[in-house]
Amino acid sequence: AVDARTSAGDPSAAPEQGGVAEVGVNLDLVPANVFTNSNAAITTLVGLVYDNLVHYDRDSLDPKPALATEWSATDGGRTVTLKLRQGVKFHTGRPFTSADVKFSLATYTDPKWNGQLISTAKVVTAVETPAPDQVVLRLDHPVSNLFDLLATVPVIDSETAGDIATGKRFVGTGAFAFESWRPNTDLTFTRNADYWDGAPHLDGVHVRVVPDGQSLLAAVKSGQVHLARGIGYRDAEAAASTPGLRSIPLDGAELQAYVGLNVTAPGLDDPKVRQAVAYALDRDRIIKEVFRDKGYPASLPWPRTSPAYDEELDGRYRRDVGKAKALLAEHGAPVPEIPLAYVGNDPVFTAIAQVVQNNLAEAGITVKLEPVDSTQFVKQLIGAQFPGLWTTNHSWAQLSPATLTVSAYPFNARRNASHFSSPEYTGAAEAAWKLPAATGPEAVAAYRKVSEQLLDGGFLAEIGVVLEQFVARDALQGVDWSRRRELDLGKAHLR
Amino acid sequence: MSTTDLLTISGLEVSFGDVRAVRGLDLTVAPGEILALVGESGSGKSVTARAVLGLLPPTARVRGSVLLGTRELVGAGEEALREVRGRSVAMVFQEPATALNPVHTVGWQIAAVLRAHRGLTRQTARRDAVRLLDLVGIPDPATRVRHYPHQLSGGQKQRVVIALALANEPDLIIADEPTTALDVTVQAEILALLRDLRDRLGTAILLITHNMGVVADLADRVAVLHRGELVEQAPVDELFAAPTRAYTRELLAAVPRLGHRDPALPHTGADALRLTGVTVRYGDFTALSTVDLHVARGEVVGLVGESGSGKSTLGRVAAGVLRPDAGTALVLDTDPRSARRRFGFVFQDPGSSLNPRMTIAECVAEPLRVHRAPGDHRARVAELLDAVRLPADFATRRPRELSGGQRQRVGIARALALDPDLLIADEPTSALDVSVQASILALLTELQQQRGFACLFISHDLAVVDSLAHRVAVLHNGRVVEHGPHHEVLRTPTAAYTRRLVDAVPLPDPVAQRARRTGLADVPA
Amino acid sequence: MAGPGVAGRARCHPARLPGGAGVADAVGDGVRRRAVADRRGPRGVGPPDPVGRQEVNALLRGRGLVGLVLVGVVALAGLVGPLLVQWDPYQQIPDANLLGPSAAHPLGTDDLNRDVLARLLSGIRVDLLISLTAVPLGALIGCAIGALATFTSALDVAVQRLFDVLLAFPQLILAVGLAAVIGPGTTSVVIVVVAVEIPIFGRLLRSAVLRVREAQFVTASEVIGGGRGHVLRTHVLPNSLEPVVVQLALSMSVAVFIEGAMSVLGIGVSPPDPSLGAVLTTSLRYLDLNPLFALSPLAVTALLVLGFQLIAQAANAARG
Amino acid sequence: MIGYLLRRLPSALVVLWLASVLIFLLIRAIPGDAAAVLAGADAPPEAVAAIRAELGLDRPVVAQYLHWVGGLLSGDLGRSFLIGGDIAGLVADGLANTATLTLAALLLAVLTALVLGPVWAATRNPWVDRLLTAFHTASVALPTFVTGVVLILVFGVFFRLLPTGGVPPAGLLDRVDITAQYLVLPAVCLALPVAGVLTGFLAETLRGELRQDYVTTVRAAGVRGREIVVRHALRGALPVAVTTLGLQTGALLGGAVLVESIFAWPGLGLLVEQGVTRRDYPVVQVLLMLSVTVFVVVQLLTDVAHAALDPRIRLGGKR
Ligand SMILES: Nc1ncnc2c1ncn2[C@@H]1O[C@H](COP(=O)(O)OP(=O)(O)OP(=O)(O)O)[C@@H](O)[C@H]1O
Ligand SMILES: Nc1ncnc2c1ncn2[C@@H]1O[C@H](COP(=O)(O)OP(=O)(O)OP(=O)(O)O)[C@@H](O)[C@H]1O
Ligand SMILES: [Mg+2]
Ligand SMILES: [Mg+2]
Taking every annotated instance into account, which residue ranges of this chain make up the domain ABC transporter (chain B) (predicted)? Predict the structure, then answer.
């Protein structure tokens, strides 16, 4: 995190006014997905246009004021009162009030938008607006990740919300106002001079869609864009050594690469075999060679800054082919060939899949690679249809640990792609969630239980914590991002 | 004879692999001279002609010297040759059917050639093209310039090729069988045209022909070629009067003449071919109008008429290639298409009717194969090639390795392969020299007598028709203007048109022909 | 002065003139011919094969030979090359990530620590298989359909429209669809290539056939009584093959692209099996590190393109 | 000509209908649907079901088909599942870009082929022959995704002469010189393989044409070598070239998918590729229908061109 701060801006340079920041993204907007935090264009749009009620710094889970300036919990955490910032205006000029908070929360809870924290949002049984600057949230039961929700739900303008689904208009209170979107081409944003946190230095932001990774790299190298999102790890590494360019790993917005196991598959139904898989993985090599050291190997999802992080538990699985073989011997029967699904046109997971295949072969497990396209992959994932193994990444472990187990589908205690369920795991997960606070000794103990269940269940073999990165030109300074990888150029400037 | 010779060929050798087509030929052509080059089919006439302008296929090896004035043409560069071609020396190709580009109009092609050596505008070139077509006697030239080669009759194509050669008024015209496809009246016009060119512009002509009548009519001097070698050359009168070589004598003896055959007996058998009220239109143009014609079994009917009169069209209707707009064609009492196994058809253009990728043996054997004829096909092919006087080793050659006359004989052999009951032959001997022609005619007569097949014999050569046919029909502008027993129609014609035709037949005797031409005497045929 | 003309006119060869005899025998040819008429007879009266002796001979000379050698070199490299390389194409060599060319790894190593040369050589096999089986198969089917369809105009219209539909699908979309139905892997690559080539050859041949059909020798064969099939086989097809030969050379050499594009989408030859396309697509991401990595599959493709093209040129010239 | 086209119309309509059925079924044969994409990786089954219902994907396929065709017939192309907007608008924008790109590439390729093909067929200079052989080999052997990357690196990054991708910010019609700058790299990249193939075909058919007898006739008349090739032989060689061109239209549209992605050129190729991977059925259906229509038209034009170029077919007369 310290690194990121220094690389993100040179505080000594006096920020210059004006200019349009050119941003390149490799994927285009999917309006119906704006609340799912799922791709570079969406996180760029949401980061620039919308504000949240609270804000997390990148190295802690203590909420900081944003649109809400004060908050207090009563009733054992079942009533939360928020005081709202005054004088904030939407880009349409309309003042922001408590009704908008209510509307935003209600929208987020609508299943149509697939907000990932929907299970947490549903705990909020009522939103009361006693005053324009006051919101009262009534909860079904206390939740430890309520502030994750408040830091995630974008505050949207109720009058123009109907235009979101068609991509016509996105109105928020953020530092930049949405101007236009040309599908597959670009998005334009202009400066919000009335921004409550100080008008941005930039005149605007122009986001261009450049689907090809090599072209995106070329665009940032040639200076056509100042900031590129979605450049491969190897390319980002190379770019970082180019004069005038730097790579910015998104600390605090960690992702996790993992191998999932269907615990009902022949062979994988034995926890010993699953543990053998976990022992066989060469995490160090994958992190080093595939992720170019942008991350660290891990046996558990938690990043090092997470309250759930436990060094001892996290070191449980290191590559140990001998142990893996021993476990397989204990299993007795030979393990049948296991299919491994991954997104075929994703170079990162194509590489990981082949390394995994190689690793498991050394331990004595034959793996058959099954590349599928991304849509099919998602379908199989949420339909829990993988016949054996799969590999991809997940997020949500960078926020409150409970969010992971209730919101991230692979970890969902009640229903997950691994077909894994055990009363112990469900119990541990529920307990961690229903705590009134995300931090503190009580929480840490609850998280430890969850971690142990994860390690023993072995339905997910974590590979490591990895970081997405921006590649930026030195000309653009003051680049910031949220813990959900949302781009923040509110304090950025060109020089 | 002198240094002023226009063209001097010396020691010319041309070979294709092992085939030595021309062997040490020496020949000269003086300015304004008309030299006739005669000789058997395949003797190397066309090859010699092409060698002069460097137009042989890459497989040919050429040695010796060809001087145009003092300019050496053998081995000259393409650009040097290009300057000579068309302007100093022009060429009329033997087979007009393939010599023209099928996808451009004839007017366009003539204009392109006109513009090759002269900076004419498009319009003037167009106008000149019309003029040239008119010059070579193509009726309605203003319309014809817009026609494509496949819309012209054989003779019309040949005249277009002549027009191409005349386009740039060359010093020397090498004319390879320029009149083979022409009926006698048009032939006479073309000969007059050539003579006029020589008289007016001093154009020299190297005339390759097998028609002794044409030689007698036009040539100053005659050179006789035999198997690639020059066997005799002499001024025309001398040669005709006293040929020194046996070969030349035989050549002259083989010349068919009108009225030399006894009248044939009338035939009354069943019809092998019956055309009733046949009318064919090409767009607005009526090529045949209500033609009635029948050929009895065992009978040979000659069909004569001027170029473009509709002879080939009629032949194509009879063969079922073309459906008439009105009227019917019955072959051996059925539709021509169902009778195909039982008749043979000889195309007017021998070159384009042979598949270039097939060997000669394959071409000839095709009917046998198609109809699964019993017996040894190889032996049959050998027999047929022999019958048309082609050496057996030609069997493995491809059509383009043959001379014009040789290809024509392949067509005849193919038509005869299945021992047909009816033969429809469109100018089957037009490219043959008199000696080979005589043997083909003898063959046909012999077969006819033995097997008694019927034959529709289309030809513009009245003498040939007279020597073969029982009956003759005369076609003029798509109508039968006269028909009857051969001796009556050709010796005592009643229709004015027929009389004109008969009168135009050149006599294979230079003295008599000259006399007739100059009107000093009216020598009867 | 005595020019060559004088000599020419004086020169004749009485000795070579045949003596006497009738018209038929007046010329030497006749005599000789009669004598040989009963011997074995001419050969080759069967149907002309489209690729005959002439073509084969042409391939053994000049351009054709160069082409054959080029394709042969590639084929040989694919067949015996892998045996000569010390590395296994699947072996992930520890700590050999993206190495540049060296003595141990002449073309370097790839992102998964495998020897590029070993993978390249083994990869040739898959692509040769596709080039030499799928493409000719597609060409054959396409030509057959295209040619047969010209028989009846109704069928022709139907087939051409069908081809329109097939051609209208961008190749990759077709590939995605087919792979989804049959499942990814080499078989689906072969099927996609066949499916892609059929309409191409069908249409190409058809247009040539339409032209050749107008030729006089086709009419000649019809008059002889040749049925449609016969005319098509013996006359029309052999004379329509020129563009087909050119296209065949092209398709055979660029089948690697279809395979490559499919492996990019993850529906081609499944990893970790090596193929030229797979090597090429991974290599592009490492252009800056090790250009040889990317150049080598391209060089192989170029050799194939050049080789097949020279062969096609020679074949057409021989047939011309 | 118009009569000819009218006669072809019914079969073309039948094709369009068949194609519509085929397309409809084919894209549904691909496993996975847009609901999964829209729901995202963490969605519960209810959410997916809700989305399916909202998109109408839960209805019987026949009903979906009839609904779609009904829409088409009433001029409603439908809405994209993922992009949100009206397909008509999307397609109109994309079409302008793709048409500009492919037509520019087509023009480039045709011009190259018309210049190089005859030169290659007629040359006697071994060096020219080798040079053109090399050009042909390189253009055919280099896939677009390689040329694209190389072009961008050389002209966009190294020399910085041209933009590395994208469309002119103010639109294609704003300033021709700017548009040209943006267009040149993708057009060259797209045109190169097509140019190579066309050149090869044209040269090879011209060589065949130059072996014909009529060429001897014009040579004998002293027509210049260049003229023989360009004016006399070319016409006979064109039908094959036209057919190839028709086929290469497919290569152009297919290549557009890659080129548009490499050069961030927001056209239909990109749209269709995205549509397929994201199962955006309405978009794919409309685009593929468009593509089929284009092909039917191209084929009709090819046939017309054939007849126009070969009088034996045009005036074939009676057979
Ligand atoms: N391209 C070739 N390849 C091989 N042999 C050839 C080729 N062209 C001609 N010949 C042979 O050369 C000889 C001379 O042919 P040429 O065409 O000069 O005969 P010609 O005297 O013109 O006969 P015709 O009167 O029949 O036209 C023939 O035997 C012929 O078969
Ligand atoms: N396809 C066609 N389209 C238009 N006119 C044609 C076509 N074919 C032939 N003709 C015309 O029909 C007339 C008769 O042609 P045909 O070929 O029957 O003549 P012919 O008597 O055989 O002449 P020749 O002796 O010159 O071969 C000619 O004037 C010719 O120009
Ligand atoms: Mg000749
Ligand atoms: Mg005729």
Answer: 1-252, 273-502
Which residues of chain B neighbour C14 with C-beta distances below 8 Å?
231, 245
Chain A residues whose CB is inside 8 A of the C267 CB are: 344, 371, 373
Q: In degrees, to the nearest 5, what angle opens at C-alpha D21 toward C-alphas A31 and C169? A: 70
Q: In the beta sheet, which residues pair with residue B288?
A: B280
Show which of B254, B280, B301 is a domain's final residue. B254
| Cα of C117 to nearest chain D Cα, Å | 20
Please answer yes or no on whether A370 and C289 come within 8 Å at the CB atom: no
Cα B44 to middle of ligand 3, angstroms: 7
- Strand B271-282, strand B285-296: pairing: antiparallel
| Axis-axis angle for helices B377-387, B404-416 (nearest 10) | 130
CATH of D95-309, one of 3.40.640.10, 1.10.3720.10, 3.40.109.10, 3.40.50.300: 1.10.3720.10
pLDDT at C25 over 60: no
User: Mind listing the pLDDT tens digit for each residue in D61-83?
Assistant: 899 999 998 988 888 888 888 88
Contact by Cβ (8 Å): A108, A161: no
CB C33 within 8 A of CB B439: no
Please check whether residue C290 is in contact with residue C108, taking contact to mean a CB–CB distance below 8 angstroms: yes
> At A136, is the pLDDT very low, low, confident or very high (cuts 50, 70, 90)?
very high
pLDDT digits (tens, 9 = 90+) for C227-238: 888 898 889 988
The domain that holds B509 is classified in CATH as 3.40.50.300
The pLDDT score that the predictor gives to residue C3 is 37
Which of B78, B93, B103 shows the shortest C-beta gap to D217? B93
Of the candidates C184, C284, C288, which has its C-beta nearest A371's C-beta? C184
* CA–CA separation, A227 and A220 (whole Å): 7
Domain that holds residue B300: 267-342+456-519
CA of B48 relative to ligand 3 center, distance in Å: 9
pLDDT in tens, B160-189: 999 999 888 899 999 998 888 788 888 888
The domains of chain C, with CATH numbers, are 48-84+115-318 (1.10.3720.10)
Return the closest-CA partner of residue D142 out of A65, C256, B282. C256
Angle formed by the axes of helices B246-253 and B434-451, nearest 10° = 50
Q: Which two tokens stand for residue A299?
A: 């046996």
Assess whether pLDDT exceeds 50 at residue B36. yes
Domain boundary among B206, B225, B254: B254
Say which residues have a Cβ less than 8 Å from residue B61's Cβ, sequence separation at least 6: B13, B14, B15, B16
Q: What is the pLDDT of residues C69-127, one digit of tens each?
A: 999 999 999 989 888 888 999 999 998 888 888 999 999 899 899 999 999 999 998 88
Ranges A112-116, B5-9, B267-271, C189-193: which has the least confidence: B267-271
Instruction: State the first-to-last Cα distance of chain C, in angstroms, to the nearest integer.
Output: 47
Q: How many domains does chain B have?
A: 2
Residue B153: what residue type? S
Residue scoring higher pLDDT (C56 or D214): D214
Cβ(A461)–Cβ(A259) under 8 Å? yes
Give ∠ CA D103-D107-D110 in degrees, rounded to 5.
135
Nearest-angstrom CA–CA distance, A361 and A357: 6
B324 and B244: one domain?
no
d(CA C227, CA B284): 32
Between vectors from CA B308 to CA B185 and to CA B208, what angle results, nearest 5°? 55
**pTM of the predicted structure, to 2 decimals:** 0.86
Report the C-alpha gap between D174 and D179 in whole angstroms.
8
Ligand 4 centroid vs B348 CA: distance in angstroms? 6
Question: With pLDDT > 70 as the criterion, what percentage of chain D qualifies?
Answer: 97
Please list every protein residue whose CB sits less than 6 Å from any atom of ligand 1.
B 16, 19, 21, 39, 41-47, 57, 59, 94, 400-406, 431, 433
